[in-house]
Amino acid sequence: MHEIMIIGSGGLAKEFYTIIKAINKIEKKYIFLGFADVENEGKVIIDGHKIIGDDDFVIKKFRKSLIVIGIGDTKRRKIISEKFEANNFKFPNIIHPTAAGDWENISFGKGNIISANSTFEAHINIGDFNYFNKNTTIGHDVIIGSYCQLNAGANISGSVEIDNCSLIGAGANIYQGVKIENNTTVALGTSIFNNTKSDSTYLGNPGKRI
């Protein structure tokens, strides 16, 4: 078993804890140590687990622990991950037991989180520190960069490419062969039929840049 802790203590951090808990019900893989945050040390977050200190405390005291970054903001997630990487921490890929995928034909980086009932097809390439919320579907031959977030019920068709730090809203649809450029936000329920431009937000059906 591996010691593991979550950086962050908000709603997303609690969601990630429930995935770890679900994994342990199937197979005892992790010893959960607690949460790390910059304030409210000692506060109970869930199931009696507390905030045990801030990032620097974790780096000083828990160098052998695995790290999960439970931060929704992609820029903060990147900064925090780089801080812990510089101190040689390891970041497991955490996959809910109900997620389905052709795992032998899926390439993962590190620090990815996959929530319940998500589905992954064949020949998918995934970078680092991405979050796939509940009921996301990822089609064949998809490429996903790093620090992306796909919210609940997002549907990604085959041969789509999603570049770094992009946010795909709940229930959004990305159609076959589309490229989502860096730092794109696709709003809730939006359908994207054509390539996006970087550093942009899209809304509607069909999705338009706003």
Describe what this molecule looks like in 3D.
- There is one protein chain.
- It is built from three helices and 24 strands.
- It is an alpha/beta fold and 210 residues long.
- It folds into two domains: 2-85, Rossmann fold (3-Layer(aba) Sandwich), CATH 3.40.50.20; 94-204, UDP N-Acetylglucosamine Acyltransferase, domain 1 (3 Solenoid).
- The strands form four sheets. The protein has an eight-stranded mixed sheet with strand order 6-9-12-15-18-21-23-24, with helices on one face.
- The N and C termini lie far apart (48 Å).
- A hairpin with a 2-residue loop joins strand 23 (201-204) and strand 24.
- The mean pLDDT is 96.
- The radius of gyration is 17 Å and the shape is globular.
CATH top-level class of the largest domain: Mainly Beta
Q: Mean pLDDT, as a whole number?
A: 96
Order of helices and strands: EHEEEHEHEEEEEEEEEEEEEEEEEEE
Shape: globular
Major sheet strand order: 6-9-12-15-18-21-23-24
CATH architecture descriptor text of the largest domain? 3 Solenoid
| Extended strand count | 24
Structural class by sheet pairing and helices: alpha/beta
Question: Can you give me a brief rundown of this structure?
Answer:
The chain has helices at 11-26, 55-61, 74-85, and strands spanning 2-7, 30-36, 44-46, 49-53, 66-69, 94-95, 100-101, 106-107, 113-114, 119-120, 124-126, 131-132, 137-138, 143-144, 149-150, 155-156, 161-162, 167-168, 173-174, 179-180, 185-186, 191-192, 201-204, 207-209. It is of the alpha/beta class and 210 residues long.
